[in-house]
Write a structure and sequence with these properties.
InterPro entries: AA9, AA9_LPMO. By secondary structure, the chain is mainly β. It has one domain: Distorted Sandwich (Coagulation Factor XIII, Chain A, domain 1), CATH 2.70.50. It contains two helices and eleven strands.
Length: 238
């Protein structure tokens, strides 16, 4: 009995350790401290995911919907520069197989405003989908601990929210099984262009949870599987 209990404790610790947060903004060649420019998320202790795509938490997963934004600093970055998120991960990589993406939204009245980006203003700037090879999905970013990408050069200057997300798919074969790990950084973008980002979506609203890239059994793909279909809008590259 004691042996079984010990095994269950170890298994539980491994399960929790496999979860993660995205607390650190990467910008200007620096990985910044936890929650300095990223809104502290409600899972900052548990590391647990969002699983309900219709919940307000799917936007930025804030610890508090009224005070967290104002307690978070705003980083200045240039359009065309490399930014990203460093994960806080027990085993040093994004253990769960999944789909990564990054979104941005103009932040009105400001990036540190709790009411910013509550409507259909989010556009996708990057994605890293699994690759279908030899009858199975391969997940390129499963063995890294950070994601980086480029802010489109033609993005107009101004204040924005930057939303990094992984949709973990290891238990996504039933509705509500996909796990969303995400964080929102607060930015002022300078040296921008005159592009018109789009298409735009809202959070919640961007996903129904029934998309083939969200509701999927990655371990039992059909013989006629067409390849991974990314959820959400197309990427705007500027």
């Amino acid at each position: 009995m004691k042996t079984l209990l010990a095994a269950l404790v170890v298994l539980s610790a491994q399960f929790v350790g496999a979860h993660y947060t995205l607390p650190d903004l990467i910008a200007n060649g620096t990985t910044f401290a936890d929650w300095l420019y990223v809104r502290e998320t409600a899972n900052h202790y548990s590391n647990g995911p969002v699983t309900n795509v219709t919940d307000e938490a799917i936007r930025c997963y804030e610890l508090d919907y009224t005070t967290t934004a104002g307690d978070t600093s705003i980083a200045t970055v240039a359009a065309g520069s490399t930014v990203g998120f460093q994960g806080s991960i027990f085993n040093d990589d994004f253990y769960h197989p999944g789909y990564f993406s990054a979104y941005m939204s103009p932040a009105v009245p400001a990036a540190n405003s709790a009411s910013a980006a509550e409507s259909s203003t989010w556009f996708k700037i990057w994605e890293d989908p699994p690759v279908y090879e030899n009858g199975e999905l391969v997940f390129p970013s499963q063995t890294i601990d950070q994601i980086t990408f480029t802010i489109p050069k033609n993005l107009p200057s101004g204040q924005y929210l930057l939303r990094g997300e992984q949709i973990a798919l290891h238990v996504a074969s039933t509705y509500g099984g996909a796990q969303f790990y995400l964080g929102c950084a607060q930015l002022t973008v300078v040296d921008g262009g005159d592009g018109t980002p789009g298409p735009t979506v809202s959070f919640p609203g961007a996903y129904t949870g029934y998309e083939p890239g969200i509701l999927i059994n990655i371990y039992d793909l059909p013989a006629d599987y067409p390849g991974y279909q990314s959820p959400g809008p197309a990427v705007w590259s500027g």
